[in-house]
Amino acid sequence: MMGGRGNVKNHRPGGWEHAVSRYMSVTVELVDVLQRDFLDGRGLGESVAHIDASEASVIVAESLEADRLWNRLAGRTFLSGPRAFEEKGDRPKSDFRIAAEFELMIRMAEVARRVKDRGAQQNCEELAMATLKEVLRSATASPMLWYGEIFLDVAEAAAAADDPAEAQMWVKRALAHELRFEGGRNAGLLLTDLARFSVSAGDVERGLQVMAGLLRHDPGNIWAYNATALLLDESGLPDISAEAARRGLALLEAEGDPEKLRGQMEMILESATASRAQGPRTTVASAVLDELRAALQTDFDAGKPPSVEGLCCEVVPDFDEIPVKRPLKPSDVPLPDREEILEELAGPSTKRPPRLPGRNAPCWCGSGRKYKHCHLRQDQRR
Q1: DSSP category for residue 95
Q2: Can you give the residue ranges of every domain in the chain?
Q3: Residue ranges of the chain with pLDDT lower than 50?
Q4: Which residue blocks in 138-218 are alpha helix, DSSP H?
Q5: SS (H, E, C) 97-151
Q6: pLDDT of residue 1
Q7: CA distance 14 to 350
Q8: Where are the alpha helices (DSSP H) in 235-322?
Q9: Which of 42, 44, 38, 35 is nearest to 12 (CA)?
Q10: Rounded to an integer, what distance in angstroms lies between the CA atom of residue 24 and that of residue 43?
């Protein structure tokens, strides 16, 4: 994760702080650079090589929106409660703004835990999770967030709440997002999670079919054998779990063990072997088991031709119907009024000197910018 955690100060006038989120995909330092470009009247997208003007505009607008909430509420949210987040107007909140709300609610829960107010802590945690789901249900995707981590955290929370069907739904959403925005780099891991949640939901056959598809698609992936053997052992299918573990050990013997998985594979094999005397504890259609056994015997250097997207469509029947966010555009989050932001940055306690500085002298507010780039126009209007 590139983003910072916690309350990050930037030594701005009036004690202004940047909003942060544990799911940030950009650094606080990058946000500060882009915001300063905007406040100094420079062209957005000129100071950071890998960010164009459109993306820079979105980051500035989203971050300033979240900053204003953060500085209004940070440090007093526990006393004010959920009503502190209520605002007039019907303008939709951006995802990063909602992620900042989530972070503040988690802080509320932590304060409640420290004062041993279990009821308030539970209320804050439930509200925080509902807020995190709001991020995922919006139509647009912010360039400031890692959505994969949010999808998985929400899925794990659903599984912990004994709702594996909801967990499956969020992992499917994560898969669709991964293919649209990340090129499918983590699709294999997400499919493994989907198989795990499918088994937890009682749909063991669907989980095994997902793992069979993964093995056919990439039979040289040791993690696929490790996950398959572990899932089968936990599912009460020790015989085929032992087959998967042995196949994984054969792959390690042929190609080495850079991932240091030999010990774990041997432990799974030992556990499955010990469980074989009890027989299978789960009933699975023979056709599904045959498909999985055939996948386990695929040559290590073979692999299945279809793309990752083709694999997802193969093992997730309703994959084409899963909603996917669209990238956020500048028109979705217009930039705020620059002078209004500068006024807020100055802070209510900042006093103007009786003698104003020259145009090229440092501004009287202590921002470090030249007076002409900071409070000059504001003072002229007065």
Answers
A1: H
A2: 1-143, 357-382
A3: 1-11, 13-14, 349
A4: 147-160, 164-181, 187-200, 204-217
A5: HHHHHHHHHHHHHHHHHHCCCHHHHHHHHHHHHHHHHHHHHCCEECCCECHHHHH
A6: 31
A7: 7
A8: 238-255, 262-275, 286-296, 308-315
A9: 35
A10: 24
Residue 340 has a pLDDT of 83
Packing angle between helix 53-73 and helix 28-39, nearest 10 degrees? 100
pLDDT in the model for residue 344: 74
% residues pLDDT > 90 (the chain): 63
- Please give the structure tokens belonging to residue 56: 């820079």
Type of residue at 309: E
Helix then strand then coil, % of the chain, to nearest 5: 60, 5, 35
Q: How many Cβ atoms from other residues are within 10 Å of residue 274's Cβ?
A: 11
The HSE-up count of residue 259 (CA atoms within 13 Å, CB side) is 17
Q: Do 37 and 117 meet the contact criterion of CB atoms below 8 Å apart?
A: no
Widest Cα–Cα separation across the chain: 91
- The residue behind tokens 């042995």 is 246
DSSP 3-state assignment of 50?
coil
> Cα separation of 247 and 10, whole Å?
54
Distance of CA 102 to the CA centre of its chain: 13
Q: List pLDDT tens digits, range 347-357.
A: 654 556 667 88
77: tokens are: 């949210």
d(CA 191, CA 321): 17
pLDDT of 230-256, one tens digit each? 999 988 999 999 999 999 999 999 999
Q: Are 328 and 96 in contact (CB under 8 A)?
A: no
Cβ atoms 149, 23 nearer than 8 A? yes
